[in-house]
Design a protein that fits this description.
about 240 residues, alpha+beta, Deoxyribonuclease I, Chain A, six-stranded mixed β-sheet, 5 helices, about 30% strand
Length: about 240
């Protein structure tokens, strides 16, 4: 029996990021099924979601756990601190079913508004940090500093998500020494993309082989952000 090649180990892994806007589309309707259809079309191994839970009360999931289990080939990484959310501070991570997760962590982030990041270390791959950074540049810089201090000196880290930065270079100074930052394309606003708010940063042990923005008809209606994806090769783990 042939063994399926493992992402990030035997082949490049595809990681995606999608701010789903609590499943509310540009038509004003909340439609989790539409979000699932977009997710299924990304052909990703790992997906970092932002605004995956409501912001008020107990923060119930905007993308129901049972819908993900029934309609996708993904598992929800257990990051929530209650029984009704699928993430933390709206950040959730989906992994292709059968993917082994070694460790998870939650990072409290400083800033003028409540923010957090989630860290998922794969058993056979890098550590993925899903982020939705703050609205102020000073907060975003401090948040990146905090994330890097928590990650330490590992060379197998991916930081991905809605980084909320309209500038092309400013605001990302904390990443300059040990990470390479990529903007796969303009992802906001979905109706007329003008800004690359959604980005991915790779530590020195990782290499980008391809990247892009999903611009299909459904993605242009399902949220105000378009999903981004990146194919990443982990040379350190594939030797």
């Amino acid at each position: 029996m042939s063994v399926m090649p493992q992402p990030f180990k035997d082949r490049p892994g595809r990681i995606a990021s999608y701010n789903i806007r609590k499943a509310r589309g540009l038509d004003g309707k909340r439609d989790p099924g539409r979000i699932v259809d977009v997710i299924n079309g990304l052909d990703a191994d790992i997906i970092a979601l932002q605004e995956a839970d409501r912001r008020l009360g107990d923060r119930p999931a905007a993308l129901p756990r049972d819908l993900i289990a029934r309609a996708t080939d993904f598992d929800v990484v257990p990051l929530a601190t209650n029984t009704v959310s699928i993430g933390w501070h709206g950040n959730a991570v989906l992994v292709r079913r059968g993917t082994a997760v070694a460790e998870t962590n939650l990072f409290d982030l400083p800033g003028a508004e409540p923010r957090g990041a989630v860290s998922v270390e794969l058993e056979h791959g890098p550590t993925i940090v899903g982020v939705h950074l703050g609205l102020l540049r000073s907060s975003r810089r401090n948040q990146l500093d905090t994330i890097l201090s928590r990650l330490g000196s590992s060379e197998n880290n991916i930081i991905i998500g809605d980084m909320n930065e309209w500038a092309t270079r400013r605001g990302f100074e904390p990443l300059e020494e040990a990470y390479t930052l990529y903007a796969p394309g303009r992802s906001f606003h979905a109706r007329r993309p003008v800004a690359a708010l959604d980005r991915v940063a790779l530590s020195q042990g990782l290499h980008l082989t391809d990247a892009g923005v999903e611009q299909g008809r459904l993605a242009k209606r399902a949220s105000d952000h378009l999903p981004i994806w990146a194919d990443v090769r982990n040379e350190g783990l594939s030797r």
